[in-house]
Every structure is written in structure tokens, then in C-alpha cells.
Recover the amino acids of this structure.
């Protein structure tokens, strides 16, 4: 059974950095594509980034140049490096397998002074 | 970007009654590979979303057959043939035909 566990969310000041982790079990993150999706509490879903089996990546315009998605196959983990954080990055961040096949419980990022 | 717009349910639904949610996209979701990457997800309060249907009408593993999907091009519908209490929550359509992937705003289903 596939499982995803996100960690790394925290309270950070505007302009700060954070790295989110998504540890997978039950499958290999290198054998599929993985996404990050975020959700402001009480609001809708926003796609953030994807990493393909090939290692190719795409980003939402709102995070391009600030966020980087990458993976460590030896740890079976996908990461989201978040730099130059802004208040509108505040959200619950989920990682998902494929086109939403599996979701973690999410990790909360709060950007505030 | 492709904008996804969902209809609202006009009122709470009685258990055992059907429910239908529509989703419209600003561009055709038919990919050059011939597939249409339109999915439906369900999110219960306090829970992450879970996948119900993908490629318009294919049920994901473990999804009851009371959930079905239809549509093509820019217009899609999720149907629940007989609503159960556990179906409460918010339903989202999502397109993964073109980057950036985009979601509908969500449709809340409440039980009467």
C-alpha cells in the first residue's frame, strides 16, 4: 500500500527558506511522477510543482524561480525547496503520486513576521 | 492557464437521492495523445483529498460504483447515483492535460 508522509512545515518569516520532505513507501518515487499541491486552510487546491520519472520538472508561475522540486531515490523521498517565501505561500502542502492517486496528510507552512 | 469552473449544489441532498456536479473548462481537455485528463477528487473535512475518477470516467481503486463520470471536451459531470452520509465534503475537478494543472473551486455536498 502506498503511503506518503510530508514533513518540514513551520512558521517562517517573509523572505525565509524552508525545505519540505515527502517520504514515500510502498512504491518508488523514481518510477512515477510526483506533485506538490497546496491548500490555504478552508480554501481550494492549487497545484505547485511536478517531477517526472525523467527528472524533468514544471512549476506554477507563482513559485517559479523560488521553489525547486527534487528527489533522492536512495531515501525514496521527494523534496520541495522553498526560498524567498511570501505571506501568500502560507498553506497546507500535500505531496501526491501520479495524478492524485495517493496523498499525504500535508504539512503546514506559515509565512509571517 | 485553463480555468475550471464547477457548479454549486442548490441545496443539501437527502441520503439515497442522486447528486450531480458539473465542471467546465475554458479549453478542451483532450490531449494530443487522445486522452482527456479530467479527474474528480473528494475531500472530507480535515482530510486530504482522495481520487475518485480519472480520465473522465475511470474509477480509482476502491471507489464505489455509485460514482460515475461523463463528458468530453470542455464539459464534464460527476454523478452520485445514491448519496450516502460518507459522501459529505467538497468535490473538485482537476485537469492535468496542460501545465499548469488546475482545479475547480470545489463544490460542497451537504446532507439534509
Amino acid at each position: 500500500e502506498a503511503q506518503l508522509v510530508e514533513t518540514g512545515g513551520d512558521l517562517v518569516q517573509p523572505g525565509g527558506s524552508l525545505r519540505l520532505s515527502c517520504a514515500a513507501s510502498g512504491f518508488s518515487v523514481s518510477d512515477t511522477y510526483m506533485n506538490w499541491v497546496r491548500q490555504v486552510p478552508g480554501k481550494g487546491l492549487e497545484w505547485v510543482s511536478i517531477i517526472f520519472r525523467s527528472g524533468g520538472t514544471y512549476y506554477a508561475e507563482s513559485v517559479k524561480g523560488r521553489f525547486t522540486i527534487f528527489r533522492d531515490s536512495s531515501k525514496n523521498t521527494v523534496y520541495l525547496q522553498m526560498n524567498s517565501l511570501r505571506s501568500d505561500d502560507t498553506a497546507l502542502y500535500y505531496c501526491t503520486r501520479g495524478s492524485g492517486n495517493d496523498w499525504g496528510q500535508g504539512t503546514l507552512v506559515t509565512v509571517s513576521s | 492557464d485553463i480555468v475550471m469552473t464547477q457548479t454549486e449544489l442548490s441545496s443539501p441532498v437527502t441520503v439515497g437521492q442522486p447528486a450531480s456536479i458539473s465542471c467546465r473548462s475554458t479549453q478542451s481537455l483532450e490531449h494530443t495523445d487522445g486522452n482527456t485528463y479530467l479527474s474528480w477528487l473528494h475531500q472530507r473535512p480535515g482530510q486530504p483529498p482522495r481520487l475518485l475518477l480519472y480520465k473522465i470516467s475511470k474509477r480509482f481503486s476502491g471507489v464505489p460504483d455509485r460514482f460515475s463520470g461523463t463528458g468530453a471536451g470542455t464539459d464534464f459531470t460527476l454523478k452520485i447515483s445514491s448519496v450516502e452520509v460518507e459522501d459529505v465534503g467538497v468535490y473538485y475537478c482537476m485537469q492535468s492535460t496542460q501545465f499548469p494543472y488546475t482545479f475547480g473551486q470545489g463544490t460542497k455536498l451537504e446532507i439534509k
Observations:
- Chain A has a mean pLDDT of 97.
